[in-house]
Amino acid sequence: MQTKGNISIHAQNIMPVIKRWLYSDKDIFIRELVSNGCDAITKLKMIKGDMEEELKVTVTVDPQAGELRFTDNGIGMTHEEVEKYINQVAFSSAEEFLKNYTGEDKGGIIGHFGLGFYSAFMAADKVTIDTLSFQEGAAPVLWESEDGMEFTMQEGGRTERGTTITLHILEEEKEFLDAFRVRQVLERYCGYMATPIYLEDLSPKEAKPAPSASDDETEPHVTGTEEEEKQEAQKPVNDTHPLWLKNPRDCTEEEYKETYRKLFHTFEDPLFWVHLNVDYPFNLKGILYFPRIKKDFGGQDGQIKLFNRQVFVADNIKEVIPEFLMLLKGAIDCPDLPLNVSRSFLQNDGYVKRLSAHITKKVADKLNGLFNTERKQYETYWDDIHPFVKYGCIRDQKFFDLVKGSLLLKSTAGEYFTLEEYKARNEGKAEKKIYYTTEANRQAAAVALYVNKGIDVIVLDTLIDMNFMSFMEFGSGNDGLQFVRVDADVSGLTEDTEEGKDIDQAQMEKLFRDALNDQELTVKLEALSDKELPLMLLEDEQMRRYKEMSAMYGQAFDFPAKYTLILNRACDTVRGLAAMEDEETAALLCRHLFDLARLSSRPLEAKDLQDFIARSNQLIALLARK
Ligand code: ADP
Ligand code: MG
Prior knowledge:
Helix content: 40-55%
Bound molecules: adenosine-5'-diphosphate, magnesium ion
Number of helices: 20
Radius of gyration: 36 Å
């Protein structure tokens, strides 16, 4: 007897929603149907215990019939169950199942995805369910629907326990009749499901690239790619025991690396990793890998794959993982996450907050652990991980509080210090100041002045560093700590000597102001430790940073450069200049010295460069005439 009917009212509301998905994430119907097969198997196992036959889901690609079939040898459905779970209830019925069959262990069944079965209509113009329940004496059922709203139902001919869902694929979705494409989707969404999943390809042989003729002739025992294909088909598409579900004690380093390479289709190795393994007070399993992070990591996305009971859900769920951790790569499985709720709900969910706090803490623990027990090794990682760590500190005060003792500063000499170590090493030389360079090569002259005085200069040359410095100065409770670029200050470089003390500062200022035609210029006399250096051009630290910040955010204000010219009164050249009577030559020298000072931090441009060259020739001519 055949029955016809309309699928419950809900369906009318659901179909448009499903169709809308078509445009965003249509692959997911495969995930839904495969995970229903897996659920059916889990249910059977719960009732029957372990069974001898292999319980599996097979996905069959049959281009000739225009069909994609999902077969499982799980629990199957009776007439009443199809009626109830498919016709009446479009949403999850797993809860109800649990109440009926076990009452206790809820592990591993509840599908959170809501739209489940009906997503089949995203890609099909006809869907059939051919099913036989495990129950003694149950009759097979054949259900059919063309639009997900009207169906027919009759007794079927199936003799084996389980279910086959057949999708007659829509003309415009023909890609799902391509085994390669289907394998891709299976690997993405079902790659770590708990039940073995096989892909069966019924494409006609001639449609596939034939093995080249020469191969066949030269190698007698090549039985063709058919053999290979069979072997491939005998292997499940998925890994039913992902590493992150294992006890960390049972995982080897090679296994971690292999999982990384597999997850991210890469040949690169991660630097190190954190294995998350919590059962209480919430359930969380996962591995977070520290990848090699490129220098300016802006735009570089990490990838954390979110699973729900081994079913892949999404790549980066910002609401679950603290934003700064998104630079990491890995997989986490949160079985308790309410995935069918809105993202804004997740954001405010206490469970999610605890989850993300836990992840943050674990990552911090890992860094501190490395710092404390493998300092040298940790230092080798620092260049790769510091943008991530610094970003984390800025974004999350808790993270900063946890890792602040393990933050390193890298010196121009390639040594690594903590803040405390830096302070101790430079005690008495760099009062509460950290001297740094943004470009060790360009600023080499200024760097050398400090290094020669025994002061460590730190390299802070990534985008994040500018923000990080401000954070450390203002946001971290480090009262009075100051980052000073090597060309912003000479206080650490001056000597207490009498040399040149008689030079008149006002006179020198006027000399330079006139020569350079800049009446705003500030000139100061100091005795620098390097006697060979006549002058240094200092640029105000805060002003420069402000300028750089605005440039970074696309506001190109033309700030007046605020320079101070430091004349080294301990240098013979300066003393000579002060005593010089030939005003014209003095002015020439002033301009030249000024250019030299500028040159030591950046190249001269166009007009300035031309002037510089012309003046050099002029000076050489002067000397030659002597
Ligand atoms: P959910 O999986 O969240 O319960 P679905 O729409 O995916 O929602 O499925 C609805 C119900 O249909 C399932 O709960 C299950 O009872 C039944 N069902 C679907 N596919 C199968 C299958 N392959 N074997 C047995 N029962 C199934
Ligand atoms: Mg489902």
